[in-house]
Design a protein that fits this description.
Layout (H helix, E strand, L loop, with lengths): L6 H14 L3 E6 L2 E5 L6 E10 L2 E11 L8 H18 L7 H12 L5 H16 L12 H9 L7 H20 L11 H4 L14 H13 L4 H16 L3 H4 L7 E2 L2 E4 L10 E4 L17 H8 L10 H13 L4 H7 L20 H18 L2 H10 L1 H4 L1
Antiparallel strand pairs: 1-2, 2-3, 3-4, 5-6, 6-7
Helix pairs in contact: 3-4, 3-6, 4-6, 8-15, 13-14
Length: about 400
């Protein structure tokens, strides 16, 4: 009988359980799971997860013990799971999983590889299921009209970003449940078809240099206080490093060595370490932030909504100007914003370890020179350094 757990996946799971010192659950499909122990290496318990009369229940099938003759292997576990499912069907009126059941299962499946912020967001989406009153709806009764009606009559009806995030999470959970053979295939429309009135997500708007010049002058004129100082420091670091906002948030002093900032893989979108060259003027401003920085607060709360931009748009500005000035360094420019390298074959990326260190130093230095030439950024940095002892 076919299943998703292989010997290779099992070995990886055993190593994860030992390294993380927590139980690791492998899903074989059709509700069959192997829960690996972290206290006894190579030992686990087979379970069949069923949903009867709206209640999720785990049925123990047997023990897996690596290398032991009495161990329940893959084939035997699958056969026992099949027999038990047949028995359950004959003796009970089976009910489909509820929407909340599959969303919780999806979160549990993903939580070992998710960042803390992502887990918080996923948990919030599960709470939203209760708010829009579809948490306890059986999956086989889920229709586009039902989802639409429940959302537009809920307190979330005007929260477009929350609706978009919740619907994306719901689709991902459904796809996971289908792949795990927990439910039959169910198709829901795209969010633009379900809610045509929803505005599209905001583009990563790139500010023009003329506006950036004016904006920096207004930043210099701002009354300095703890909040303004924090946001101006974040703005300078993002502008000069072409980093994403989440790469600036949660930075630590230990990530910098001389003028080089090594951002760890877990904070990168690509899940690969990223190297940034910091010009000398930036070094006094490189420090941790007490709490998270928000684009909308900087744009609306600090700058009074005078400019249309996102922090991410500064990456676009960096890339655009550097391409204009040094088109011959396009791969290095791409590396500066952690977009990787061009390869003839996809597998080449696992072999090519060149990190463009010299080119990064050259490009980030040129970018800072360009900003100094067209804006009063050096004056703003000097102002922040002057108030460093007071607000950092």
């Amino acid at each position: 009988m076919y299943g998703k757990i292989t010997k290779a996946k099992l070995l990886i799971g055993i190593k994860q359980a030992k390294a993380l010192k927590k139980h690791v659950t492998l899903c074989d499909g059709g509700g069959l799971q192997l829960r690996l122990s972290y206290t006894y290496e190579g030992k686990g318990t087979w379970f069949l997860v069923s949903c009867i009369n709206g209640k999720v229940k785990r049925h123990k099938l047997g023990e897996y013990v690596k290398g032991k003759p009495y161990s329940m292997d893959f084939e035997k576990a699958r056969l026992e799971a099949y027999k038990l499912k047949q028995k359950l069907r004959n003796n009970y009126s089976l009910v489909n999983y509820t929407v909340k059941d599959i969303c919780v299962a999806y979160l549990k499946h993903k939580e070992t590889i998710l960042r803390k912020n992502s887990i918080t967001r996923y948990t919030q989406n599960i709470d939203y299921l209760e708010i829009i009153n579809i948490a306890n709806v059986e999956v086989d009764k889920l229709t586009p009209q039902l989802v639409r009606d429940r959302i537009v009559t809920s307190p979330l009806k005007d929260k477009h970003v929350a609706i978009r995030n919740l619907y994306t999470f719901l689709i991902s959970s459904l796809n996971f449940a289908i792949r795990e053979q927990m439910i039959k295939e169910i198709k829901l429309p795209t969010i633009s078809n379900l809610f045509p009135h929803l505005r599209k997500s905001e583009n990563q708007k790139m500010i023009e240099m003329s506006e950036l010049t004016t904006m920096i002058d207004e930043c210099i004129a701002l009354k300095m206080n703890k909040v303004n100082y924090k946001y101006l420091r974040a703005f300078i670091l993002i502008l000069c490093s072409a980093c994403r906002l989440k790469e600036i948030n949660n930075l630590s002093l230990g990530e910098r060595e001389d003028n080089w900032w090594l951002i760890p893989a877990e904070r990168m979108k690509s899940k690969r370490e990223h190297l940034v060259y910091l010009v000398e003027d930036l070094l006094p401003l490189f420090a941790t932030f007490d709490d998270l920085i928000s684009t909308s607060y900087f744009r609306q709360g600090i700058l009074q909504d005078k400019y249309e931009f996102t922090f991410h748009g500064f990456r676009s500005l960096f890339m655009t100007r550097m391409y204009q000035m040094h088109p011959e360094l396009k791969e290095a420019i791409s590396a500066c914003i952690a977009h990787g390298k061009d390869h003839v074959h996809e597998s080449d990326k696992y072999y090519n370890r060149y990190d463009f260190r010299d080119e990064r130093k050259f490009l980030f230095s040129k970018w800072y020179e360009y900003l100094k030439e067209h804006t009063n950024i050096q004056q703003l940095i000097a102002l922040l350094v002057k108030h460093k002892a007071e607000y950092m």
